[in-house]
Design goal:
CATH topology of the largest domain: Rossmann fold
Strand order of the largest sheet: 2-1-3-4-5
Order of helices and strands: EHEHEHEHEHEEEEHEHHEE
CATH class of the largest domain: Alpha Beta
Distance between the termini: 18 Å
CATH architecture of the largest domain: 3-Layer(aba) Sandwich
Strand content: 15-25%
Number of strands: 12
Structural class: alpha/beta
Largest sheet: 5 strands, parallel
Number of domains: 2
Radius of gyration: 19 Å
């Protein structure tokens, strides 16, 4: 799905809708992504560079900042470092650079998530919602998590799609419970395998692939249960 094909008619947003500052020097991305975010329930203010972003933040309060990594003048990385030194505002960084060292740079600067271009718009919205959820409630246990059409009851260990119950193995149930305790946060393979019920790290990869077939519309291109290269896996929820 592309940004251009994802746009729909916008309805008026409530005053308490989360307010996002989108900072990118590419006008087309600002326009298309800004409209998509509005369609997804966010109020959006855009800025073409760090200077414009700072001016916007002097007059408005934002719930989250989306930053392009490379911009003329002050880079998104430098702006992220400065913003994080002053406040804990959540930051999601967008970049065309997919190298591990660039991701590490962003995380070391304090950004809360790092998304490479091109990206799936729906995935980005999931990530933004997870960032804000972590900021509001941290890792509070929850009774149920939702992934699109699927709902998982943590207490009962039951996965459902509408009225249909999806059969889970004990290992899949244990994995979902662990992911449900830390949605939006990467969990390392060795941690997933530390419980005897989930087995070795190699077995974890097999279990993840099987679990994806049960919660993803397209298991080969997962939206919810994703691989974090060099770290493990992460579960995004609605």
């Amino acid at each position: 799905m592309t940004l251009a094909s994802s746009l729909a008619r916008r309805d008026p947003l409530p005053d308490n809708a989360p307010h996002v500052l989108l900072v990118d020097d590419d006008q087309r991305i600002r326009e298309l992504l800004g409209r998509y975010l509005q369609d997804s329930g966010f109020r959006v203010t855009t800025a073409r560079d760090a200077e414009t972003a700072r001016a916007a933040m002097r007059g408005l309060a934002f719930d989250l900042v989306i930053l392009d990594f490379m911009m003329p003048g002050e880079s998104g990385l430098d702006l992220a470092r400065d913003l994080k030194s002053m406040s804990p505002i959540p930051i999601c960084m967008l970049t065309a650079r997919a190298e591990p060292e660039n991701r590490v740079e962003g995380l070391e600067a304090g950004v809360d998530d790092y998304v490479t271009k091109p990206f799936e718009p729906r995935e980005l919205v999931l990530r933004l919602n997870n960032i804000m959820r972590r900021g509001r409630i941290g890792h509070e246990p929850r009774d149920e998590i939702r992934m699109g059409d699927y709902a998982f009851s943590v207490e009962r260990g039951e996965l459902r799609r509408g009225d249909e119950t999806i059969k889970l193995t004990e290992r899949e149930r244990d994995l979902l419970r662990l992911f449900a305790s830390r949605p939006g946060s990467p969990i390392a393979r060795h941690e997933l395998a530390s419980d005897e019920s989930t087995g070795s790290e190699r077995a974890i990869d097999v279990q993840i692939n099987r679990l994806r077939r049960k919660i993803e519309l397209d298991p080969s291109n997962p939206v919810y249960l994703q691989t974090v290269r060099g770290k493990g896996y992460i579960l995004y929820i609605d």
